[in-house]
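Researcher: Next sequence.
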Amino acid sequence: MPAPVLAPFPWTDVWGQDAAVEALRAAVEDPAALAHAWLITGPPGSGRSTLATAFAASLVAEGPDDEATMRQVLAGAHPDVTVLRTEKVIITIAEARALVERSYFGPSSGRYRVIVVEDADRMTERTSNVLLKALEEPPEQTVWVLCAPSEADLLPTIRSRVRSLRLREPDVASVAELIVRRTGADPAIAEQAARHAQRHIGMAQRLATDDSARARRDQTLRAVLGTRGVSDAVEVAGQIVQAATDDAKALTAARDDAERRALLHTVGLAEGQAVPPAVRSQINALEDEQKQRARRSVRDGLDRVLTDMQSLFRDVIMLQFGREESLINQELAAELSVLATAWEPERTLVVLDHLAQTRESLERNVAPALALESLLVTVTSGRMP
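Model: Next structure:
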């Protein structure tokens, strides 16, 4: 498949979404066609946030030649663009109210004020209701852009107030080509990473450039395939949770330390100096925020493992129905073929159903180790506990 033609700046980082880019460019150029609330949906890694930011840059700029303003937006430094990207489990009512309040200010220097809400699916019903009035009757020069995996992830009342734009899923070859261009990775590794990431661009880039991430994924899936009883299930579940926790710490530790040092510097304290009571509340608030972010990071890591496991048993069911040409985990084809022969399709479907239930359980804050142990017992027995 030929590579998509790159759109002009600021759309150059949007990959494989030509129809969506053209729709948004047309809206920017024709104010009469510009909706004041948009919902950009697409699977994780499809480029929702990148597209939303490029749209915001085009809206705020005085025209296609105003690159200075557009670069300011892309750098996250323009006063007329507010982006809410939460690293917590949910978007809070307080955060939503702050956005609504900001949406009623006119633009300070650009043509529009733009409010971008990434992961809008993390709003509870009460939080979503805070946005309803602002989405229905926004000020003339305010544009809302919500991002979510699908329309079904938002309330019908929200969906009725926005113009929806659905992104397409890029194919493996296109994602692999993008990774090669961005990172210089070996094309074979880039293709494997794109396949294993199931076309999620961010995850594919990490797998292509991080040997340890690729090794962890392979070890985890082989451990799942090697689970033979309850004791194995308990051990492998513990290994998965520990790996997700260690990975989250590795991703957040440097950032946490930098944030703490920056806060201490702001209040005039040197590293190691005693924190006075007047500042302690700010330190505590920062630590609470970092803990919430760490919990979210662990949960996202576990969800990634479940996605990888889902691809494993999806491959098994494909083999059971004679579809050998589109395996995600081609490197494990021999082991998966043995499993596909030994199991009935009904057993594979039971495992896939329990995988979906496990994902829901983790979202409800069920203890990760218990949820994974239950899932792995199903893998070994073919029956729900």
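Model: Residues 172-209 form one domain. The first strand starts at residue 37 and ends at 41.
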